[in-house]
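FAQ

Q: What does a record look like?
A: Structure on top, sequence underneath. For example:
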């Protein structure tokens, strides 16, 4: 599985409500620093890359959330994978970009 896929990641950390955004921001920083193509959306962050590299990013986001004080995480992942083709963010949303 060396083709690019799309992976949508939503992490809901178990922390006091006033800390939720700060912990989620830590996870988004991991995604940003990973170098993969990504788009932050209101409820999830969508990434583009190979399966292996994106799953490594997912692992690191969870680690940083625990380091930031979360006692538990609810992690929701959605993936689009094509057998012999890349999947890109642009093919789904490019026509809506201004």
């Amino acid at each position: 599985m060396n083709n690019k896929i799309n992976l949508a990641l939503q992490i809901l950390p178990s922390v006091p409500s006033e800390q939720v955004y700060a912990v989620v921001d830590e996870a988004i920083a991991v995604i940003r620093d990973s170098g993969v193509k990504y788009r932050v959306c209101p409820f999830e962050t969508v990434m583009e890359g190979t399966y292996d590299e994106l799953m490594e990013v997912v692992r690191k986001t969870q680690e940083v959330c625990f380091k930031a004080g979360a006692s538990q995480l609810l992690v929701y992942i959605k993936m689009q994978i094509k057998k012999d083709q890349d999947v890109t963010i642009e093919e789904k949303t490019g026509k809506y970009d201004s």
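Q: Is there anything notable about this one?
A: The mean pLDDT is 95.
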